[in-house]
Write a structure and sequence with these properties.
heterodimer, A: 631 residues, alpha+beta, 17 strands, B: 93 residues, mainly beta, five-stranded mixed sheet, 7 strands
């Protein structure tokens, strides 16, 4: 007799776009117990289903939309979905997360996972309603922006407007195979790594989900108690107060002062205008706080606009720290209105804001060094902070015009094609461009950037500067991480160990497809395990969840090893390992990581990885149950 | 007159020369009056990353807790002997 699997919808939806065939499969309880969902399920599936070396922009690639038992509106952070894929910008492991109702609505529609294979010979979109799914002609969606596609899919939904319905779609960026295209959920993005380009290659314009299925918990009373307790922890936390009142952009002034704001293509770690830009945003752009999903106790999102002038925008959700910081400091632009306009355009076109700002910043440095000229830029002077260059840069990238055709490939490929002299200002790890935090503000972020499986990412799985500067431990001291209050941000020794423990612990939010900010507000891996146990009936404590997360990180690492990555791909760009050229930390040697190789050695040893290659050892693979992925 | 006790926590500590202050205010003083006093007495030491001299208030996610409750309303009336905790979070993102 089959055991009922509580907490899950119980079904995987497999869509083969080449054959135009849709298959529904029961989820495998053993796989769920071993990998849970989110990035865990994605790792198991992509490792087993993808051949090594496939072209990410080919029919062979797979895009997975993954939830977990915690993907419910009533769970703190449950309004999330994880997207897994082989990244077209790194050629390696790709994962991205979007906040919003799509994850919970996907489960209401009857599916824990949607797996997209193959390539359609014409534009289509996927409609998933109450346990059934159909591919629909998307001729009228093709060429439309994200907002238009979203509206069209909802208006065309079978049975009309429904209470629970959510859509994710690509924009023109994805259609034009811009390698850093995002998959958008209204103004929220599964942004990094280029999942939108993979969908665009497949001719899949979007997915809409709707349903009314209820997910049954194994222990409803226990679940109610733990949800009440964790919700109270979040609501009463100082972090919640700060994030709700000021959003993530509230950090801009302090990050600038602390040297955590990469500026002018990483030539400095401080801009000196963070407070001014923040005030302008608060006074002129901010309308109100906004939760990205129904039930969120934090509400870090912002409803914003540019009211008038040449950068006027409609009212929309945006203004997140990373984007505002990237479209100001990266580009040496001090106009918050312009940054908001860029944010709006990137969302409308479905391209990653961080990489978009990074490629334009890279182009500006190429222009400064006369490596590219106005003959390449459609006649625009790509000078630092130039508003026309920034706006035209976005347009050129999305439409692959002029230099935009090259920039649409990302900094790594663009630099390789432009020549060796551009390598020193091509700032990326594994091909993913850096976000708006600088490891010259604290050394833990350096080892995080080097070793994150998706590349130079600050939050998948760990935001290193929040330990070094914010003195957060996320409840991980009981797992061996040091008290951050006892650690100086400039220290190096020991941070390879701290990094490993924190990466494993904080990846719990990714494995569970939840919002990591709940962990900033006091929800720990132990709380997650209690919620998971109440939902599924499994007896999983924090220690076991921690081991599952370690397993997932190692499996992602094995995925990358299989693609040919090794220790050399964990190195940081030389510029990031050098003292800032200007600003309040100019030539400050405290900022500089003295011995990155020693940090890597320490990290590898702690992980049980081979020092030379960076590959998980056979013993480590055996310990984590990775000698047979699915058993 | 009333006296309130201000405690500085976390990230903010580096900007203040002490971790606690006793501050005298008029008897009907509000949170806004406390901010004006902070600007007057301590403001010159506070950098723009955390303090707006124009608005005479904290800039960014500084949480003000009075008797354990988070207070945003500048017209909140302070009581004699109130414990006021100022902390600035790094919110992430």
């Amino acid at each position: 007799m089959k055991t009922k699997l509580y907490g899950y919808a119980g079904k995987e939806l497999w869509v083969d776009l080449t054959a135009g065939c849709i298959t529904i499969k029961e989820i495998d309880p053993a796989v769920m117990r071993k990998y849970i969902g989110g990035t865990g399920f994605c790792a198991a599936l992509l490792f087993t289903e993808l051949e090594a070396g496939i072209n990410p922009l080919s029919a062979e690639n797979i895009v997975v939309f993954a939830t977990s038992p915690l993907s419910l509106n009533k769970v703190p952070g449950g309004g999330s979905v994880i997207v897994g894929f082989k990244s077209p910008i790194t050629g390696a492991w790709g994962e991205a997360r979007s906040g919003g109702n799509f994850g919970p609505d996907m489960k209401r529609a009857g599916f824990d996972f949607i797996i997209i294979k193959g390539k359609s010979d014409k534009p289509v979109y996927l409609e998933v309603v109450d346990g059934t799914a159909v591919l629909k002609d998307a001729a009228n969606l093709k060429g439309k922006d994200v907002y238009e596609k979203d509206s069209l899919m909802k208006n065309q939904l079978v049975g009309g407007n429904r209470k629970h319905m959510s859509a994710m779609c690509i924009g023109l960026g994805g259609e034009n195979l811009v390698r850093f295209s995002s998959i958008m959920h209204e103004d929220r993005a599964a942004g990094r790594g280029g999942a939108g380009a993979v969908m665009g290659y497949k001719n899949l314009m979007g997915i809409i989900v709707s349903g009314s299925a209820e997910i049954e918990a194994a222990n409803p009373d226990q679940l109610q108690k733990i949800l009440k307790r964790t919700m109270e922890i979040v609501i009463k936390s100082d972090a919640r107060q700060g994030m709700h009142a000021y959003g993530t952009v509230g950090d801009l002034p302090a990050n600038d002062e602390d040297g955590d704001l990469p500026t002018k293509n990483w030539r400095s770690n401080s801009f000196g205008k963070g407070a001014e830009i923040f005030d302008s945003f608060q006074n002129n752009n901010l309308i109100k706080a906004h939760p990205c999903y129904a039930g969120c106790p934090i509400g870090c999102g912002r409803i914003i606009e540019v009211k008038e002038g040449k950068y006027k925008t409609p009212v929309h959700e945006g203004g997140e720290y990373e984007t505002i910081a990237a479209f100001t400091a990266f580009l040496f632009n001090d106009n918050a209105d312009l940054a908001v306009k860029c944010d709006y355009l990137c969302n409308k076109y479905g391209i990653d804001t961080l990489t978009t700002a990074a490629v334009i910043s890279f182009a500006m440095e190429c222009y400064e060094n006369k490596i590219i000229t106005e003959a390449d830029t459609g006649g625009y002077a790509f000078e630092w902070g130039d508003a026309d260059a920034i706006l035209q840069g976005i347009d050129m990238v999305v439409n692959r015009n002029h230099i935009g055709d090259l920039l649409a490939e990302g900094v790594k490929i663009a630099s390789e094609r432009l020549g060796e002299e551009t390598k020193k200002f091509a700032i990326h790890v594994k091909g993913l461009e850096g976000p708006a935090h600088d490891p010259r503000s604290g050394k833990l972020l350096g080892i995080t950037y080097g070793t994150a499986n998706r590349g130079m990412c600050h939050i998948h799985p760990l935001e290193g500067m929040a330990f070094d500067r914010g003195k957060m431990d996320w409840g991980m001291m009981k797992y061996g991480v040091r008290d951050p209050e006892t650690v100086d941000r400039w220290d190096e020794k020991g941070k390879g160990i701290d990094c490993k423990i924190l990466q494993d612990g904080l990846s719990s939010a990714d494995v569970l497809s939840t919002c990591k900010f709940m962990m900033y507000a006091g929800v720990t891996i132990d709380h997650w395990s209690e919620i998971l146990s109440a939902l599924t009936g499994w007896d999983i404590d924090g220690e076991e969840l921690y081991t599952i997360c370690e397993r997932v990180i190692n499996l992602q690492r094995l995925f990358n090893m299989r693609e040919g990555l090794s220790r050399k791909d964990d190195m940081l760009p030389e510029r990031v390992l050098s003292a800032p050229e200007f600003g309040i930390y100019e030539n400050n040697q405290d900022c500089v990581i003295k011995d990155f190789n020693a940090l890597l050695d320490e990290y590898y040893k702690t992980r049980g990885w081979d020092i030379e290659t960076g590959c998980p050892t056979a013993d480590k693979q055996k310990e984590l149950g990775l000698t047979n992925i699915l058993l | 007159m009333i006296t309130v006790h201000v405690y500085v926590k976390g990230y903010l500590k580096k900007y203040f020369d002490r971790e606690s202050y006793s501050i005298e205010l008029e008897s009907k003083a509000t949170l806004k009056d406390l901010y004006e006093k902070i600007d007057e007495d301590l403001g010159k030491n506070l950098p723009p990353s955390v303090w707006s001299h124009e608005k005479k208030s904290f800039r960014g996610p500084v949480v003000v807790k009075i008797s354990g409750e988070s207070i945003i309303d500048l017209d909140f009336k302070l009581q004699d002997g109130s414990d006021i905790i100022l902390s600035r979070l790094l919110v992430g993102g």
